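Worked example (supplementary).
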Amino acid sequence: MTAVEAPVEAPPVVRREPRRWQGPAAFAAVALLALVVAPLLLEPFRLGLLAKYLCYAIVALGIGLAWGQGGMLTLGQGVFFGLGGYAMGMYLKLHDAGGDLPDFMVWSGVEKLPALWTPFGNPVFALAMAVAVPVVVALLLGALVFRQRVRGAYFAILTQALAAALVILLVGQQGLTGGTNGLTNFFDFFGQDLAADETQRGLYLTVAVVLGVLYLGARQLVRSRFGRLLLAVRDGEDRVRFLGYNPATVKTLTFAVSAGMAGIAGALFVPVVGIISPALLGVVPSLELVVGVAVGGRFALAGAILGAVVMGYARTYFSEELPAAWLYLQGALFVLVMTLAPRGIAGLAAGLVRRRREAGT
Amino acid sequence: MSEAPAETTPAATASPETALLETALLEIRGLQVAFGGFRAIDGVDLTVGRGELRFLIGPNGAGKTTLIDVITGLTKPTAGTVRFEGLDLAGRREHEIVRLGVGRTFQTSVVFEELTVLENLDLAASFRRPLWSLLRRGRGVSEEVAAALETIGLTSLARSRAGVLSHGQRQWLEIGMLIVQRPRLLLLDEPVAGMASDERERTGELLTEIARDHTVIVVEHDMDFLRRYASQVTVLHEGKVLMEGSVDEVRADPHVQEIYLGRAREDAEDAVR
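After joint prediction of all chains, the assembly is encoded as:
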């Protein structure tokens, strides 16, 4: 390989098709684990945590698509996550208030329901917006930015600034958004008590199924011609132009898909965790998601998901045991992975499998 | 924009292109490109008819690659027009020009290393499909792609990653990616640069084959290659067209000998050989 600027270890020379049954078998095993074993073994509190991590995994899947496959390092996925979360939170707040003003509005002295809130009383509208708003924002941003050939670090900084800006906006509009506290105190979820174990188990299963479906969809995307085009854009955007494709369109669409995934994740996160607030979608959580994807392996969709779950558990464990060390550990882990194993856990695992196969077993 | 040097060569005025003017595939008039104060192209007129195989030669800095860059939309001209099939190319973006039917290769070939040879070709061949139809899984090999694989001699490497190809093989893959796009004009920028002699030979054969049913412009430095495979030649010098004519006319021209002598002795010796 002559690659001068590829710090990433070279994949095998001839791409060998993995044996047909291996992929589906692995997927079925993970599905069994997630849908049957986990709900049976985990106590409700732990199952709730896993549901939360799986929400992050949905965002991570989108990051894997945009960054790993498309080369767009997005440091602002929290924005789309937040937009989806707030859409769902607004519906839940209105539903709980039952025709009155939501509690936080009363506390902030708001007397009439703002016009922006009114349609969110309809759950179908709210759910549609949880996806549509992130997608449209990403489409607009992408159309503006990618057409102007903004990329690499500039794009990353731009998305990060967007996350910071949204936080400021949300905090500043106390009466409309609940300010720093965000939206919380939800009680009823489509006629079920949100605090009940049964409801939470149902939510967990929903999140797991949604993640599985989105994973299959993303996998289909990656393996299609569009997926190859996306890789080509990542590795040689200028060359792609001379094949007659507009890279800006390819990038914008992919970015919108990843934003839609983050929106769905946000909408699921709210009933699972019971809160959406600026602290959950700003610069730091957006960065943490990217770190998770890097650790899991950004070039494999499953790696991105794995990374989000592993980082979620690591964070919970260390903030219970060694809260002060977590931040440093996370930073150290990121540096280690980027320097020693740029393909992350997924890359290490794939290397192991390959070596074993080459050993002739 | 009068071309003073061109008048000195009778071949340029009496060339068969005059008859083809009405149907010229590519028409460049009064083209100027300036980078800061430097005029990379200074008043170039060039007409290429359908089915022609045209070589563009000239010493380093003559403006050959810049000319290709302007045609393909990579560089914006300061003045002048480029017409392809009568359409003004000014202000069109790169991928739009490709869609009109102008394809090019680069001096340093850029194939997609993570994709296989087959996938590279398939991607190139699919560019006219609507974007949504790309979402389907592309299975199988289209006849067109199979034919191109055959032409460029990479059938046995179809399922290898393009990253493992040699320099020569990469150039052929690039040419293959051009062919499957069915362009009406192919621009090859120094296709044999850095190639071993057997690779050059193979590339020459490939070029001859392609030129049979395509219009091709080849930028080339290599005099030996030129002598073997060129017929019509345009010589650029310091951003201007120095002369146009057949290979023999160009090689016999004292001006051409002079600039090659002045620039690089080795090239000059090749040129007059």
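Two points are worth noting when inspecting this output. Residues 47-280 of chain A form one domain. Residues 1-13 of chain A have pLDDT under 50 and may be disordered.
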